[in-house]
Design goal:
By secondary structure, this protein is an alpha+beta fold. It has a single domain (3-107), classed as TATA-Binding Protein, CATH 3.30.310.110. The chain contains 2 helices and 5 strands, in the order αββββαβ. It has helices spanning 3-23, 81-87; strands at residues 30-37, 42-51, 54-66, 69-75, 95-96. It has a 5-stranded mixed β-sheet with strand order 1-2-3-4-5.
C-alpha cells in the first residue's frame, strides 16, 4: 500500500476510535463529528451542538498530512496520539508535533518537519 494511503487509513482508524470513545460520553444535543478531507489531507474530531442555551463547537483532535508526514496540530485529549501512531506502525520521524514550536521539535523524539 502506498505510504500516503496507509497514513490516511491509519488516521481514519485513530479518529474513529476516539470518536467512539467520545460518542459514548455525549449528550443528546451534542454530536461528535469526524472530518476527513482526503483532498487536502486535513483530519479533525470535533463536538458540535448545544448544551442548553450554550453553543458547543470544539475541535479535540486535528491532524494533517504534509510532505508525507503526519502533523499533530491539536490534541485536547488525554491520549498520546504520537505514541498511538507509532504503535500503528508509523515511524517516529514521520510524526511532527506541530503543536510545539519548531525550536522544540528536535527534542521531542519525533520528526522535525
Amino acid at each position: 500500500m502506498e505510504k500516503l494511503e496507509k497514513y490516511r487509513l491509519l488516521i481514519r482508524q485513530l479518529l474513529s476510535n476516539h470518536a467512539t470513545l467520545e460518542g459514548n460520553q455525549q449528550e443528546e444535543e451534542i454530536e461528535c463529528q469526524i472530518i476527513f478531507d482526503t483532498e487536502h489531507d486535513h483530519y479533525q474530531l470535533l463536538d458540535i451542538g448545544w448544551d442548553g442555551l450554550k453553543r458547543v463547537y470544539h475541535c479535540f483532535i486535528h491532524l494533517d498530512i504534509k510532505n508525507g508526514k503526519i502533523w499533530i496540530q491539536r490534541n485536547m485529549t488525554e491520549a498520546d496520539l504520537a505514541q498511538d501512531l507509532v504503535e500503528m506502525g508509523i515511524p517516529k520521524e514521520d510524526i511532527i508535533l506541530g503543536l510545539h514550536p519548531s525550536y522544540k521539535r528536535p527534542y521531542t523524539g519525533y520528526g522535525v518537519a
